[in-house]
Amino acid sequence: MSRFKDKINNELGYLKATGTAQDIINSTEHTNKVITFKRAVAMVATLVLVFIIIFIPSNNSKGSFVIIANAESVKSGATPDTNEVTGDILDTENFVEISDGDSNVLTYNFNYVLDENADPADIAKKYLFHNFSKEIDIAIKGDDIETVTYKINNANLVGFIIKDSEKNEMTISSAGISNSKNQTDFAMDYDDHKYTHFVFGPPKEINEDNESPNYKLLDTGELTTKTIVSNDPGDVVGIGVMDENTVVTKDEIEMLRKYAKNDDMVGFYNYQNQIFKRIIDSITLDITVTKTNGKTETQTLEFLYTPDILTEIIETDETNQNSPFFDCTATHSTGTLSAKIKK
Amino acid sequence: MSTNKKKQLFSEIYNENSDSILRLCYMYLKDTQLAQDATQETFLKAYKKLSSFRELSCINTWLTSIAINTCKNIIRKSNYKEKDISLEEVEYQLSYAMSDNDKTLAVSDAVTSLPQDYCEIILLRYYRDLPIKDIAKLLSLPQTTVNYRLLKAKSLLKDILKEDFFDE
């Protein structure tokens, strides 16, 4: 501990926090401050299957392996023909909602100020997002598979987690994200892979000058490899990297700026959500299995993001912050992510 | 994140950080009761946000940013307004207080006597150990400005306290 910190703690040692962690937890369980908004009709129409258990493969499945979303457990040796797989088997016909079980919210970070004359108290609301990330859970099941390779298109891989529900272990693996690399794919042995949870963000433009005409850049962090032992196989731990870039057009920035200057935050968040939709709907995920006989087979997922339509903003203490760094963990732009196999 | 895991993680975070967050809030708000309120509000928010927090390696920075913003909100709501004083005036007042040889000035008093911007920078860097780049993001300042303010704040404190408490 530094001398400075030592001195402060000695001088202020009489100051002790009242209450315990349990007091705080009990207090939040009685709190009921929420931001509510109405859901668009389009979003309801998009939801086809939500958390149902499927025991037989869909007739519209493609290829010799199945792709399972929202899997609660994937046991070693289980095949889609048995009832040992629970989750949503994806097919080529229906978009299925994919969530990480905890939230459907995109997390995103801010950097570029859209309205430099705004009151500092409002600055947090008027930043251009420079990154967003979305977590999805995918499992692959099939026979005679040696390795599985995931390749994301029109997006940047932020990180991934391999989850072994039998051992109650999650390995957070580094995807080798760095300033100079646009990571889009990773591979793993099928035997090691039980259930993959990964995070993707918008495509990354590599910029040697570290500058952009539309937005400023932040330093990126790096992922580290570690193992977390969890007692709950349903646990999902997200990892993220504050990315450098995001692909937003000048026209889109100008529109966001107008909303920000007019203090029309409903319009701001709804328009921002449309930008997320534009980017996400263009993303695809190639899943390639390599069989033990050396042959490969690929299926591609396509995505559909259906934004929630915000009609009003209900201010709570949580939104009344002036720091974009704090607000980076919350957003008014929410929606539903769905996926299906590309025909 | 399951509820049990969330509660367990939160308890660890609370036990490790509650006192230092309280002291940070105290030095920011200069009032014990307000600091207690700010601390409780900080951890309330942290618990609510914990499920969606995605950078578990940056808990310290994340928690500190919540605390700082909570303090700023309290200041705004209570119509508390800091007097706009110059550095020279601060130095004069502290030097006057030190003129009695029997008095020793507490480091915490010296820090809280600084203008808000300088007090904040010192606390973030040397009490909460935030890296410069995180401070820059939190305060929406260029890193060069953060470095400059740190230099000035340290220099002022050294003049006032007649001793350098900083290891860098």
What does it look like?
The complex is a heterodimer of chains A (343) and B (168). With 343 residues, chain A is α+β, with helices and mostly antiparallel strands. In chain A, a hairpin with a 4-residue loop joins strand 12 and strand 13. Chain A has one domain. In chain A, helix 4 packs antiparallel against helix 5. The longest helix of chain A has 17 residues. About 42% of the residues of chain A have low confidence. In chain B, 42% of the residues are buried. Chains A and B meet through helix 1, helix 2 and helix 6 of A and helix 1, helix 2, helix 3, helix 5 and helix 7 of B.
Compile the SSE list and pairings:
The complex is a heterodimer of chains A (343) and B (168).
Chain A: H1 3-11, H2 21-29, H3 41-46, E1 65-74, E2 85-89, E3 96-97, E4 107-113, E5 127-142, E6 145-153, E7 156-164, E8 169-173, E9 185-189, E10 196-201, E11 226-229, H4 250-261, H5 265-281, E12 284-291, E13 296-307, H6 324-327, E14 335-341
Antiparallel strand pairs in A: 1-2, 1-5, 3-14, 4-5, 5-10, 6-9, 6-12, 7-8, 7-10, 8-11, 12-13, 13-14
Helix pairs in contact in A: 4-5
Chain B: H1 3-29, H2 32-49, H3 59-77, H4 87-97, H5 107-113, H6 116-127, H7 132-139, H8 143-161
Helix pairs in contact in B: 1-2, 1-3, 1-6, 2-3, 6-8, 7-8
- Annotation, overall tally of beta strands of chain A: 14
The two chains with the largest interface, and their residue counts, are: A-B, 57 and 61 residues
Describe the sheet with the most strands of chain A.
8 strands, antiparallel
Q: What's the gyration radius of chain A in Å? A: 22 Å
Oligomer: heterodimer
Rounded to an integer in angstroms, the radius of gyration calculated over CA atoms of chain B is 17 Å
Could you estimate the helical fraction of the residues of chain A in percent?
Answer: 10-25%
Mean pLDDT of chain B: 78
Distance from N terminus to C terminus of chain B (CA atoms, Å) equals: 39 Å
CATH topology of the largest domain in chain B: Rna Polymerase Sigma Factor, Chain: A
Helix/strand-derived category of chain B reads mainly alpha
Low-confidence stretches of chain B: 80-85, 97-103
